[in-house]
Description:
The protein has 12 helices and 9 strands.
Amino acid sequence: MKMSKQFPLNALRVFEAAARLGSFTKAGTELGMTQTAVSYQIKLIEENVGEPLFLRRPRQIVLTDVGQQLAPRVSEAFEMLQEAVSSARGDINTALQINSTPTFASQWLARNIGSFQLAHPNIAVRLTTTEKIIDLIAESTDLAVRAGVGAWPGLDSHALMRSEFTPMLSPALAETIGGIHEPRDLLKLRIIDAADPWWRIWFTAAGVSDPDLEGRPTSRLGAQSFEARAAVASQGVAILTPDFYADDVALGRLYQPFELRCNDGRDYWLVYPHSRRNTPKIRAFRDWILGELNPETSNAAK
């Protein structure tokens, strides 16, 4: 009881919301409090810490250095408390919010997530997809699969898959020009999304310095998986990550005419807020997906 009087848990909850949302007003809305009440609770925690936690500016609040150090630890503490209470109540509807790029979600995650759910039947997976990088905290998302270089402030990241690319097309389309024998033969066919920078990287690596891609019609389909479907339908040549389309190759719907694969430095990564790295459901998913895709590093992440 002595600790509860000296340790303002309610004020910490208000601080966590204000730091996460960047606004006293938004924190009040989320918690059902007036802005005055929020300001009072923040003042209580600042008096308890002995340092200001926010810089008050017109229409804006900014965390001080002390506030920046405190915020992620408070968020992690409340997350652990929530998980502990859920476990104690025997909750069976713990939800794991995952955001992913559309291609990774459709070509790998959707095909394999069943094994995770069999191993963790008490965790309900909620999956959203977008090509844009979202703020995991603001979007209330637990973790994400991103394409990039693996460095995002405030996030832990684990390499999942090297994103290599190469031209792929249907055998039927290749037969219309007597087969693909050299890289320039691809230019005899429709190039799906000629504006994709992967094409120039690949042609340069293949020794074709002047592929004349600028004069071709551009058609951005929004996701690599859609371009693959167009290639299967013999609508053109797509530049794809072949590891995603092994089934199409095995069934004779697509083939890779050249062994050359390229990489632009952007790979697939699993990311989650550093402050939530010890959350049980995040640990469970991290250990599962690393074990599936990157087993040599899965033990190091634990």
